[in-house]
Design brief:
Blueprint (H helix, E strand, L loop, with lengths): L2 E5 L3 E7 L14 E7 L1 H11 L3 E8 L6 H10 L3 E6 L6 E6 L5 E5 L2 H4 L3 H8 L7 E4 L5 H14 L11
Parallel strand pairs: 1-4, 1-8, 2-6, 4-5
Antiparallel strand pairs: 2-3, 6-7
Length: about 170
């Protein structure tokens, strides 16, 4: 199986289970709460690893104690390689409200992701070879995403498609 390089975010998710989504200005009482690691990047890395891929994952994190929730969950998954870029920003958080039918609302912070620099990601993809996959979610700054894609493309032995501008 070829390697999958996942470049993205990891966050702390607080999920409130609600009987229905609230109307504007309304307060509802949650029927449950779950705190867990999350983020599109982390979720995709976990699924790729569980599907059998050799995963290399890079994400920014803050340095607050709560990041242990994320670090411990990733360690339990047994990734081949995980790189955390500790930033000066707090770890991103997501607050989710989920109704019984699956309908949801999500509010997330992004300062930690925004603090990732192009220099942080270029070295990460430097070991890629043709046939390997770079997976990004579009939640990092555009210049960082382009730097990673450009560095990965330069490592390919065969032509790769350039990312389209958003």
């Amino acid at each position: 199986m070829s390697r999958v390089f996942v470049l993205g975010n990891a966050s702390i998710d607080t999920t409130l289970l609600v009987p229905r989504l609230p109307a504007a200005g309304e307060t509802l009482m949650a029927t449950g709460i779950v705190r867990s690691p999350g983020g599109k990047g982390l979720n995709q890395a976990v699924m790729a690893a569980r599907a059998g891929a050799v995963v290399h994952f890079l994400a920014p994190l803050g340095d607050e104690p709560e990041t242990a929730l994320i670090r411990d969950a990733v360690a339990a998954e047994g990734f081949f390689e995980t790189r955390w870029v500790v930033t000066g920003a707090p770890t991103d958080l997501s607050s989710l409200m989920v109704a019984p039918d699956g309908e949801n609302c999500i509010v997330s912070t992004g300062a930690c992701c925004d603090s990732l620099c192009a220099d942080d990601v270029v070295g990460f993809v430097g070991g890629m070879v043709a046939g390997e996959v770079l997976l990004m979610q579009g939640n990092l700054r555009l210049d960082v995403t382009r730097a990673a894609a450009g560095a990965a493309r330069a490592r390919c032995a065969r032509p790769c498609r350039a990312p389209e501008a958003a």
